[in-house]
Amino acid sequence: MSTLMELTDKSFDAQIAQGVTLVDFWAPWCGPCRIQTPILEALAGKIGGKAAIAKINVDDFPDIAARFNVRGIPTLILFKAGQAAQQFVGVQKEDVLARAIESAAG
Predict the structure, then answer these.
(1) Choice among 33, 43, 58, 104 that is catalytic
(2) Where does the pLDDT of residue 1 fall: very low under 50, low under 70, confident under 90, or very high at 90 and above?
(3) φ, ψ dihedrals at 5, nearest 5°
(4) Rounded mean pLDDT of the chain?
(5) Residue 19 Ramachandran class (φ > 0 left, ψ -120 to 50 alpha, else beta)
(6) 45 near 97, Cβ under 8 Å?
(7) Domain boundaries in the chain?
(8) DSSP β-ladder status, 5-6 and 20-26
(9) How many beta carbons lie within 10 A of that of residue 67, not counting itself?
(10) 81 carries an active-site annotation
């Protein structure tokens, strides 16, 4: 099982700038976020090098959440070459996210 990358305000832009990155906007107190995490861990183990899967804590980095108009969590945004390609709000199933990554990764 692969671990998820933890992003900060210092690493966020560099990580999303190249390739495909799925970012989970979350907070430790969020129940649905705790449901989403093992789904993302399982997905990270299956997608290999097609995409990076990362998390950013909205309590620690509210400016980044605001930049992407994240109003509810969990919100997952799929970035391709620095641009938001797709956004999901609420807990998402692994197959839905895998299809989105496959589509973005081409």
Answers:
(1) 33
(2) very low
(3) -75, 135
(4) 95
(5) left
(6) no
(7) 5-105
(8) unpaired
(9) 11
(10) no
5, 27, 30, 98: the active-site residue? 30
CB atoms near residue 91 (< 10 Å): 14
Supply the CATH classification number for the domain 5-105.
3.40.30.10
Residue with tokens 């804590």: 57
Active site residue 30: yes
CB neighbours (10 Å) of residue 2?
15
3-state DSSP: the chain helix, strand, coil percent, rounded to 5?
A: 40, 25, 30
Could you say which DSSP state residue 52 is in?
E
Find out whether 40 and 78 touch, Cβ atoms under 8 Å: no
CA nearest 20: which of 45, 43, 54, 46? Answer: 54
* C-alpha to C-alpha distance for 23 and 6, rounded to whole angstroms: 9
